[in-house]
């Protein structure tokens, strides 16, 4: 029996897991599948494109980073917009951009147009990074919030790994194989867009807009038929606005959220966007199939992370994951004569741990901020992290060419060590708190 009105949004926080919760988790995760797929498919597509066209290291880095640059812009702009116009409207709009942008990639004639379209898709992906976790968090019961939110990472990883598998299957289609690879993301995006039709607005957001009756109606229809206005009183009384993100109370959370995610994704996207090239530089023989094999570890890690995030407190989880990742990456950088089997095993270990740690990246940010600025806060944190991802992806081919793969890997280890230090200083514990209490700190 829940204690009505005892905490922020108690009807939501103390609810049991229902069919509605399964649906909103699946629809949010579907967007993340598309996100992972679109960000991953560029690796096999670039490899196929490069076999037919001469691509400089500069353009290779720009195309690899283009979606991440767009993601930076989209997460900030659409995070703010989602807090202004609502979660529901933006929940569908970004998927429509996915469909149109994906199909348009099949029509490009040169790398400049490909860069522009990947940039546009990145904006839509950034929007979904801000929207999907925010909407899901605002419907998630406290006891199930961890695994519901971290399931987004599992499905994101499924999409990312699937993109390599599809790329491998389509690689034999001749000179236009890269076009089919890039356009293939339109299909899952269309399916998810259709499924999201009819998703209700967040009652937490509605009551913040003075639409208390509508909020209560959504709450009673989808969560608890016995809900009362007291269940939403804390969200109604909240006074957070966009400027509060940069005041003393929330500023440290913005910095921590952005920095911990930044330090996770710099090596993640840099190494895995160009995985075939990195393995070749390490004298590991094989083609795209080798990349698919390593990516299986990503999927296994995501599943384990989803289990752990509901059982292990947030702070020790983030500290241990950064420590393990820094150690594995340092070994990869220092062991210059490692045999191929050891290199693949180390890459597999890195993939497993970083994927498990990414569970926190889709749970933590939504817990750091109050309802009034939750999407904005998640958007700013996401944008900060994507600066690192874009820089890492852009610089990796240049760094490998100029410094060598081992020195580049040691730089990645240093970034992970920075993440460990930042988390030790600032990581809060939010696992057992209601969403309202977690956001207030």
From TrEMBL:
Keywords: Membrane, Transmembrane, Transmembrane helix, Transport
Keyword Transferase: no
Entry keyword Transmembrane helix: yes
Taxonomy, superkingdom: Bacteria
Entry-linked Pfam families: Sugar_tr
Major facilitator superfamily (MFS) profile domain segment(s): 24-431
Membrane topology classification: Multi-pass membrane protein
Ranges that cross the membrane: 24-46, 58-82, 89-107, 152-171, 177-198, 254-276, 288-310, 317-335, 341-364, 376-399, 405-427
Subcellular location, record wording: Cell membrane
InterPro entries reported for this sequence: MFS_dom, MFS_sugar_transport-like, MFS_trans_sf, Sugar/inositol_transpt, Sugar_transporter_CS
Record PANTHER family: SYNAPTIC VESICLE GLYCOPROTEIN 2 (PTHR23511:SF34)
Official protein name in the record: MFS transporter
Species this chain originates from: Pseudonocardia eucalypti
């Amino acid at each position: 029996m829940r204690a009505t009105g005892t905490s922020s949004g108690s009807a939501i926080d103390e609810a049991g897991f229902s069919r509605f919760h399964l649906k909103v988790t699946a629809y949010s995760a579907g967007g993340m599948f598309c996100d992972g797929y679109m960000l991953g498919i560029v690796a096999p597509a670039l490899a196929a494109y490069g076999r037919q066209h001469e691509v400089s290291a500069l353009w290779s880095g720009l195309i690899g980073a283009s979606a991440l640059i767009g993601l930076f812009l989209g997460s900030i702009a659409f995070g703010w917009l989602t807090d202004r116009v609502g979660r529901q409207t933006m929940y569908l709009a970004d998927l429509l951009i996915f469909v149109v942008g994906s199909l348009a990639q099949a029509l490009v004639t040169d790398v400049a147009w490909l860069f522009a379209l990947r940039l546009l898709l990145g904006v839509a992906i950034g929007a979904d990074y801000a929207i999907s976790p925010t909407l899901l968090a605002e419907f998630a019961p406290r006891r199930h919030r961890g695994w519901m939110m971290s399931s987004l990472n599992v499905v994101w990883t499924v999409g990312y790994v699937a993109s390599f598998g599809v790329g491998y299957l389509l690689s034999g289609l001749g000179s236009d194989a890269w076009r089919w690879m890039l356009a293939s993301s339109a299909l899952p995006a269309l399916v998810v867009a259709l499924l999201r039709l009819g998703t209700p607005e967040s009652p937490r957001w509605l009551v913040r807009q003075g639409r208390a009756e509508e909020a209560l109606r959504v709450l009673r229809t989808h969560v608890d038929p016995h809900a009362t206005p007291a269940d939403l009183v804390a969200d109604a009384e909240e006074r957070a606005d966009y400027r509060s993100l940069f005041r003393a109370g929330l500023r440290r959370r913005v910095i921590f959220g952005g920095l911990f995610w930044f330090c996770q994704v710099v090596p993640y996207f840099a190494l895995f966007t160009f995985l075939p090239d990195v393995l070749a530089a390490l004298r590991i023989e094989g083609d795209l199939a080798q990349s698919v094999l390593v990516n299986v570890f990503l999927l296994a890690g995501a599943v384990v992370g989803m289990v752990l995030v509901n059982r292990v407190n947030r702070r020790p989880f983030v500290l241990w994951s950064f420590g393990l990742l820094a150690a594995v990456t340092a070994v990869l950088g220092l062991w210059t004569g490692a045999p191929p089997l050891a290199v693949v095993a180390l890459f597999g270990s890195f993939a497993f741990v970083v994927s498990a740690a990414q569970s926190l990246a889709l749970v933590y940010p939504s817990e750091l901020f109050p309802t009034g600025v939750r999407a904005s806060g998640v958007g700013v944190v996401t944008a900060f992290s994507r600066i690192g991802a874009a820089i890492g992806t852009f610089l990796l081919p240049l760094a490998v060419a100029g410094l060598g793969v081992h020195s580049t890997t040691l730089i990645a280890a240093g970034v992970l060590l920075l993440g460990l230090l930042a988390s030790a200083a600032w990581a809060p514990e939010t696992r057992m708190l209601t969403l309202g209490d977690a956001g207030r700190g």
